[in-house]
């Protein structure tokens, strides 16, 4: 299994359990690993034989602008399902971090992994 990885992707979204927290966009940080067979792209040197990571990031930013979530778990699941269905990934592992949300806490978040 080959992996495309995107580290420290900063995105804006509305996220939080209290309604007031979802009224203002906040920055979250994503680390994403996308399982895909890269052997054809390795020999063809063609973007059509791989997943366009720029398109993945643009699509994530778009969907997070359009949706709000109460839980980081729901946000992570949404992104995994989007990558699996729209980009035909074999599997996805995502780490969603909500930085500095509580005093004395660097970040909180979840890591989930999903496969087709």
Description:
The chain is an alpha+beta fold. Helices cover 30% and strands 39% of the residues. It has three helices and five strands, in the order ββααβαββ. It has a five-stranded mixed β-sheet. A hairpin with a 7-residue loop joins strand 4 and strand 5 (107-115). Helix 2 (53-66) packs across helix 3. The longest helix has 15 residues, at 72-86. The two termini are 14 Å apart. 22% of the residues are buried.
Reading the helices and strands in chain order gives EEHHEHEE
- Spatial order of strands in the largest sheet: 3-1-2-4-5
First-residue to last-residue Cα separation = 14 Å
State the shape: elongated
Poorly predicted ranges:
none
Q: Which structural class fits the helix and strand makeup?
A: alpha+beta
**Could you tell me the radius of gyration in angstroms?**
15 Å
| Main beta sheet | 5 strands, mixed
Q: Roughly what fraction of the amino acids lie in strands?
A: 35-45%
């Amino acid at each position: 299994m080959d992996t495309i990885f995107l580290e420290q992707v900063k995105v804006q979204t509305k996220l939080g359990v209290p309604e007031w927290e979802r009224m203002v966009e906040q920055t979250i940080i994503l680390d994403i690993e996308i399982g895909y067979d890269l052997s054809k792209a390795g020999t063809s040197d063609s973007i059509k034989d791989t997943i366009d990571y720029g398109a993945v990031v643009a699509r994530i930013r778009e969907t997070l602008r359009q949706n709000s979530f109460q839980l980081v778990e729901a946000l992570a699941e949404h992104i995994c399902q989007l990558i699996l269905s729209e980009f035909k990934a074999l599997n996805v592992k995502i780490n969603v971090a909500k930085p500095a949300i509580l005093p004395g806490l660097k970040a909180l978040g979840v890591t989930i992994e999903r496969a087709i």
